[in-house]
Write a structure and sequence with these properties.
Regulator of nonsense transcripts 2, Serine Threonine Protein Phosphatase 5, Tetratricopeptide repeat, two-stranded antiparallel sheet, RNA-binding, RNA binding, nonsense-mediated mrna decay, 47 helices, cytoplasm, elongated
Length: 1228
Amino acid sequence: MPAERKRSVNMDEKDVSSFSNKEKEKDRDGERRPASAREKAKDEAKMSGKKDGSKEEKRKRLEEEKKKKEEKERKKKEEEKQKAEEERKKKEEEEKRQQEEQEKKLQEEEAKRQREEEKEEGHQLHQEAWERHQCRKELRSKNQNAQEARPEEAFFSRLDSSLKKNTAFVKKLRTLTEQQRDALSNDFASLNLSKYIGEAVSSVVEAKLKISDVGCAVHLCSLFHQRYADFAPLLLQAWKKHFEARKEDKAPNVSKLRTDLRFIAELTIVGLFTDKEGLSLIYEQLKNIIATDRETHTHVSVVISFCKHCGDDVAGLVPRKVKLAAEKFGLAFPPSEIISSEKQQPFQNLLREYFTSLTKHLKKDHRELQNTERQNRRILHSKGELSEDRHKQYEEFATSYQKLLANTQSLADLLDENMPELPQDKTVQEEHGPGIDIFTPGKPGEYDLEGGIWEDEDARNFYENLVDLKAFVPAILFKDNEKSGQSKDKEEAREGKDVASTAEELELELEALDITEEPLELEGPDEAENEELAKKLLDDKQEDEEASTGSHLKLIVDAFIQQLPNCVNRDLIDKAAMDFCMNMNTKSNRRKLVRALFTVPRQRLDLLPFYSRLVATLHPCMSDVAEDLCSMLKGDFRFHIRKKDQINIETKNKTVRFIGELAKFKMFSKTDTLHCLKMLLSDFTHHHIEMACTLLETCGRFLFRSPDSHLRTSVLLEQMMRKKQAQHLDARYVTMVENAYYYCNPPPVEKTVKKKRPPLQEYIRKLLYKDLSKVTTEKVLRQMRKLPWQDAEVKGYLICCMVNIWNVKYNSIHCVANLLAGLVAYQEDVGIHVVDGVLEDIRLGMEVNQPKFNQRRISSAKFLGELYNYRMVESAVIFRTLFSFISFGINQDGSPSSLDPPEHLFRIRLVCTLLDTCGQYFDRGSSKRKLDCFLIYFQRYIWWKKSLDVWTKDHPFPIDIDYMISDTLELLRPKMRFSCSLEEATKQVADLEREVLVKLGTTDTTFTLACFPQEGSENEEEEREEEEEENTDYLTDSNKENETDEENNEVTIRGGGLKHVACAEDEDFIQALDKMMLENLQQRSGETVKVHQLDVAIPLQLKSQLKKGGSGQPCISEGDADISETMQFVMLTRKGNKQQYKILNVPLSSHLAANHFNQQQAEQEERMRMKKLTLDINERQEQEDYQEMMQSLAQRPAQANTNRERRPRYQHPKGAPNADLIFKTGGR
């Protein structure tokens, strides 16, 4: 792998260099012989140590090979796991795609089926219209030509004229139906009814017909008209008398009116009446109906029936459905030819006028309905419930409105008119937030609080997705529950009355509880109710035992009930429900199951949701289980409410929690649940507080977010919070109440706005923060190389992402360092910018020093150590950072600093993190010596922190910091002896500094560090020496020994780089460069070279020597003339890797000394002049300030005594009116 360039490679290079140095030393010392036996023993010990070292190296090599094998196996397993995960994802995507295709096909098939149904319906309308038109046309032609085709007198003599048959036929006309058409037609053909025309007319007019029987009546009237000439005039006269008599009726029969109007219209269409007579009669009746029905519109069904069956011929109406079918499918419907368009126009005007009045009525009712809804919402919001009368009144009004709306839509379709716009009331949404439809609960999408009813998708599946037992269990196994199911349907139809009665009953009980507060009066009823409940359970148990004694089924049921507490997941409880329904569904077993569910142990609260799911699953097949269990829980709840004792809190909580779980499965009605909560709030003390909070924590969210119980639940919650404020509750109860309230109605949380980034930046973040791992480093590196590096924005964003290393998982930081090491081979500047950013972030963290940045500071320190492990930075950078941790911002006098307060120990954690990451590689050469020196200073820093006054017996030094320090030091230097006090640590530092001074060639003991080594402090020489020695460790050529790197503050990136390939362009470039350099040298050869004068600081260890000599000055070029008229200068030379200093005595007569002496004198004179000028300015300012003060004192006027002439103000006695204030005199 290109990025796998661990520090082991670096260590190998160090081994090679150190081995070559050792060989050289061995060659130089090989000529010498040991001077004594002691030296021989030392050599033998060294040889045995080498042998032991070789064994140790072999053992390490075997362990490394073993680790590599394990790593390969683990990589292989991870790759297999990743492949399996990818295959699973592909499979899921394929299944999802197939499902989408299937849904798309189903939608297409559904649309195709709808089109076919519409086409079939259009063709059916077309066929029915033509058949009706042909039938009416043929019948009209026969009736109009009936006078010519009537039989003669001889024909009637052959027919039956008996009284019995004729009267029987006339009586049949009063009750004729469509099924009697053929029989009545045959009877009419064989009878002579010429003497019974009047009776037949009366029977037809008074007959109670249905809409479907009108066709049969028209057919018989046509037969009468075609045989008897007097029938049509008598029938017309009879209809007129009938309608005249109906005007006087106060409550007309709407169904009879609807049938009669269609009847006379059909008779007119088929030509039984003339157009003038028939249409005038129809118009008059229709006009009377519309005139009397303009306000109430109770006869709208009559008008709709007339338009539907006769409107096409009488009024020339074309329904919108017919028009759309004709346009869509190209069908030709029969034209209206029977009656002319001029005669049809009055009917059209009359019907459209009626439709206009109907739309006005609809709009008026719509506004009234909205007002009623608004008032009901206000009442619900304030009181929490509606009265029964108001609720019933609203339901009746809503039903009538829906009926009026449906009739208006039907008439608009028949008249081909548009429906009026019905505006929605927007004030409701503004007043009460999201539109809550309280009166039509359960509509999806109308009420959805943030988060929904359920906490998550699993909870929704648990409470809503139940097993359908009817799909798996044969119906024969639960047929005995059909009657109970039917009875329950009837009860649901009367749910409002039942709920109201239950609420009234509970209210009466609550009032009784409020009245009877004496415990002696409550003991009798409580004991009686408890005994009655226990007796009922015992009686049921005895009946069940008698019914199932000696049967094998009893053993099965007992085993089933014993296994119920083990059903602790959804699959087990669903399996138990199916098992019970298949094998144990009897009345006695259901009672036994209810008792087992009711007597669940009070400690097993975890079973309540699963038992509730069992009841809800069994409910479609056996509803009595839920009913019995709910009634028993209600009784137990009432018992605990009436008891008012302060014991058995676990049993009470179990009961209310069971009620809440059943309420979430909709087995326990929401009204009863809320009333239970209301009863608990009415006496909000002691155990009732815990019971109320338990009930709300169980089902409060469900009740609050359900549309039909939202407002009442919110009112009860507000009432509970008011009681909490009014009563002085215990802190435990206050916490319980607040937790329950905010669980039901959590406070609004501002949604975090996700920052939108370009797709390429999101992809970079995905690669670094999600995909990057030890296995995927090569893959991510390949993807990184494909990025558009020529785009400066992309490169800058990638650098920023790598610098922000705290966004990466802590265990994956080394992967980012590995990735960067591989990336530097292709993009060198990226490594420089990243390292620079990390160092800048570490320095910024020390300057800001805020606890919220601690995690990112730890990540940055870890990242810097990993960069060293992957040879991205040198050890000098690491040690400079380590010394800055224990020295930056620390006052030299030991006083507290804002950058490193006494109680802050985070810098110790940073040092330990950095050393734990890369300290294991500082085990040889100069880096080892530098680490040893740092650990000495680090111990002094630790003991200095421990010695501060903030740590006392009550507030000791954190033990975790001690453990962390000891772990780090034992890892790096297991045999190192730790200092035991601040004095010892300080002594070790002093000894170290003395050794350094000795190495530098001086024995001055005045060299001390006032505090810890800082950047640019007196310890620079020591650091410079160690850095130079370390730099030489990496030089493989012996000729580079004298090369130095003085104070190299830049970070060296040791990247692999690209290999250089020679080409012709390079040679041309080198020739051009040589030519340019030669020309430049020739131009500069004639110029004079100016030597810059530099004032270099004199080394510290030479100051004492100069002072002893009597002419020491802190500068190389500074000195004073001594007795021998000479000036001392210090000359700096370098021999090898060390600097050497020599003192020179230069006579004052020389040009160098004379110029320096004159310059020094001029600078001294300038300093004295500036000093005198500053002092003069100061004296002048003080004198001016004094004069201004005296002048201001002289100008201030004398203070007058204003109290001499003032009279004492009259003090009014207490309660006396203030006359000055009343009359506004402003008396003194």
